[in-house]
Amino acid sequence: MTVKKIIQTLFVLLIPISQIIFNTSCNSDVKSEQNESSAISYNKYFKNFNITILLDLSDRISNRKNPGQYKKDIVFVNNVLDAFKSYLKSKGVVQSEDRIKIIFYPYSNYEIYQQIADSLNINFSEYGFPERKKLFEEISSIYNRQLNNLYAFASNAKSYPGSDLFNYFKHRVTDDCIIADSSFINLLVILTDGYLYDVNSKYQQGNRFSFLIPEANHIQIFRKMNNWEEVFEKNDYGIINLSNDLSDLYVLVGEFNPASNSPKDFDILKKYWSGWLESQNVKKDHYKILKTDLNTLNRNVVFSFFNKIISQ
Question: What sequence ranges are listed for the domain VWFA (predicted)?
């Protein structure tokens, strides 16, 4: 074979090889672009939680009045934490810019309260990627240690002025609980027995009130009525309307605990609270009100509520 023919033969053989190399390179680039696109989509899909946990530190947690209630509160917070951590794990902790904090209202003059609240105000975006993973691993122990310190002090207090949840919603809820950014899911968790009371916050406008206490007439009158809901709605009973727009807020209320001699109070309190939340534009499927119950039962509801939020 002449030199010319040898060169021609090699040229013919090399063409398909070069095409294979070129095609392989192109496919690799396409796959790389596809993976990058999927990663972007993945990141956009997972939003960040902005969770505020509001503790009712009224006499409901008094060791003298309700021994053991503070332990139920801590268990409930742990259920919220576990659901939150499950979500963080599913999206990858290093991508987390989520926030979670503990608050109470009115703010106490006790310095220990403020120190504990500060230590439980956590913003993952303030930490580098390695630190976020470490924080994720330690957050439950941090919360449990500090909550035990808080309740050890609060449950043995000499006096309880009340937990002014009405004025919290009137003055603070929007600023504290809502980040006006579509990449965040705003969730307010309230631990309360369902009754509203503060020594300086007793107002009435017609059949609407700023307070709900067991001995209040606007609760007592419904206890023996079979058609109480009809009477409630016909006469426009409720909690005083506020001008809040909480349409971007999810609300989970736990540990409703009606007076033991008035078990019907749970339904009455739930009626008041539901109307109040909806009057502030909290959507019907954006809130859940739970009675104090077995941990296993409420834990399942908490996880279901988180899953519902994520899927919307």
Answer: 50-309
Sequential DSSP letters for 261-299 = T-TTHHHHHHHHHHHHHHHTT--GGGEEEEES--HHHHH
Q: Is the same domain home to 22 and 59?
A: no
Contact 257, 196 (CB under 8 A): no
Q: Is residue 20 located within the same domain as residue 150?
A: no
The enclosing H or E element of 42 equals helix 3-45
Rounded to whole angstroms, the maximal C-alpha distance in the chain is 114
17 lies in the same domain as 75? no
Do 52 and 36 have their domain in common? Answer: no
Same domain flag for 136 and 13: no
**Cα–Cα dist 255/274, whole Å:** 15
**What pLDDT does 196 receive?**
94
Domain assignment of residue 6, given as a range: 1-45
How far is residue 237's CA from residue 226's CA, in Å, rounded to a whole number?
16
- How much is the pLDDT for 155? 93
Higher local confidence (pLDDT), 132 or 8 = 132
131, two tokens: 């630190």
Q: What is the pLDDT of residues 2-28, one digit of tens each?
A: 444 433 443 434 434 344 333 444 344
Question: Is residue 45 very low, low, confident or very high in pLDDT (cuts 50, 70, 90)?
Answer: low
DSSP H stretches of helix in 120-238: 129-154, 165-171, 173-177, 217-220, 228-234
Residues 143 and 79 in one domain: yes
